[in-house]
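Memo to structure team: turn this sequence into structure tokens by end of day. - J.P.
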Amino acid sequence: MYNHDYYATLDQAMVKLLKHTALNGLRTLNAIAMYLFMQPTRLCEYIRYRIQLERDYQRETEIRFENLKQHGHI
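Reply from structure team:
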């Protein structure tokens, strides 16, 4: 015979599981979107960081060169 209570319970469990799965899917899509939106910001920060490192390196090189000139090594 058809067990109404069993299938009603099964339907409720399945709906609960589908809602949970859909919510996790939306959270995953949200996380992916946030990650992709942050990429330009991260790229700009990286470029700024590399430029600053290059400036620091250039400044240190100039200081070393001036010290060599002052002490007569060049």
